[in-house]
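Key idea: predict the complex, not the pieces.
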Amino acid sequence: MYELLGAGIANLMQVKYLLPLFLGTLAGVLGGALPGVTITMTIIVVLPFTFGLDPLQGLAAMTGVYVGGSAGGLVTATLLGLPGTPSAIATTFDGHPMAKKGEPGRAVWLGIWASCFGGLLGGVFLIGATEPLAAFALRFGPWEFFALFILALSMVAGLAEASLLKGLLSGCVGLIVTILGTDPVMGQDRLTLGIPFIRGGIDFLPVLIGVFAFSQVMGEIERGGAPAADAVQRAGRLAVSHARVIWEIVSRPFQLLWFAFIGVLIGVLPAIGGSAASMMAYDQAKKISRRPQEFGSGVPEGIIASEASNNANVGGSLVTIMAFGIPGDAVTAVMLGALTIHGIQSGPLFISQNAQLAYGIFAAYLLAHALMVLIMAAGARWMLRIVTVPKAALFPVVLVLCTIGAYALNNTMANVYVLLAFGVLGYAMVKVGLPLAPFILGVILGDQIEINLVRSLMTDSNLWLFVTRPISALLLGLAVASIVLSLWQHRRMQKKSALAGGGADF
Amino acid sequence: MKLSKDGWAGLAVLAASLFLFALTLGLRDNPLVPIGPGFYPRIVLGLTALFALALVAFDLLRNTTPPAGPRTAYRAVVLHFVVFAVYAMALPWVGFRIATFAYVAASNALLDVPRSARGWLRVALLALGTAFATYYVFEHYLSVLLPRGRWTNF
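Result:
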């Protein structure tokens, strides 16, 4: 393992890999710093640039975007109180007060170094756990894979912020997208609605790009786009003693480990995301602190908790996609799409069949943290100018890049029309409160759910095998438990809001 | 009883899933395989219809009027979707460079209406820069062939 990792790092040090990794990290940091632009949108914009690259170059760039984006939001969060990404929201609670008290450098660098250490701890888990988990998944038959995908879908539906019912409905709508086209068993046309290009099925990347990019861009247009605050003046002096800041972080080893663990755990679970990881870690930091009353006034633990967990979250998300082929969030869903474009099958066999690529991704993940620190060191002051980029200029360019991304998948206009159709659908779903994450997971997993269900029934028509095979039974049991748990949580919220005088969703 | 957004969404999904379910009834099973092409779609569409129906039912049972949200610029959103649709339709006819120039200019001008010659110049420069920079980078460095226009051959 260490030998392969060493070879991966040596490989990544070549300019042809280091350059896309650097550019990806830079794009991630800039995208993360820009309020209203998420890491998902940044990675969607970067995607078409990777089509002409070799798989490792493309995935290194995307890993850079993910790592850079997870840290990029902290500069504007601390100096302006404007979180660049949702995962930096918790950083504003103590980062911004600390900056306002005259310690902007300490606030920013606590965040940067905590992101780096948290991310590296997430990397230890990523590198250590992926192979054993993938080896475990190799024992799966179609019954277990079917159960695993159902578990992922039910968790995502249950954990979505909207109601459980809407989450389940959204997941089913995603599954419907995958039944249009061709039957995977006999290759027979079905539900093509008389549209020729549906005969080959609908590619999930234009769907994903359309749904996320349009819902976000149109959402901003609808709100009129928030103007930037009094941006640049507050930069002040960011110079700081790095040794002191690093000591502030590493002198709390157990807290750092705990925050990173929370991040990794949330990352492994599909669709919860960095914002929940940082919020949970912040909450934990407050609970284990001897002076919880000081939180919110600029305590270092608040910044460390938020940033360490949200970067460790990236490591956890990558484990799920590399070991099981299940994207934990929209960013890893795009990475899965990039793998597919290059003809690489993700899943349990990925690491054994593509060891060089897998360890290259690990190496890219580790090096991206070092690059992120360097980029922040060189550009933190200038990053505040990013928030002054006019949305009127940014949005058309983003949509043009999305169009290229959809078109270039197989050089057909059909994918551009799919992009537009699902852009409208995504925006409509957001407007009626149907969560997008279960929809996307449904689109991604739909084919595999069908193939594994049909394969299992064709092997043995006994339906009891789903519950008598231990792993399958365990996974299906967890799926049911996650539904019951989320039902219970929604009921509890309903009661609370009823007591408060408002209504709540089921 | 009045339906809220949830109820209307549920009804729309219910109608779509029932329509597709009806179409699956026309799919013929293959005698060589025990599971036909309509087996899985019927499960998915049946579940979808069930969840959609539940959403409508809960909405009717709740019977509360949602609070009025802040005013939103739906007209601007519709306009931008229309502009993008025109762009998507125009791409194969006028080609990437001309369509992208026109789209970026129109979209940028709609989002931030130019009020002077300088403003129009800014719009033109952004549109020109985007169209040609993306074309150059993707065609020359990334080997991605972008659409040529049937009318313009450009």
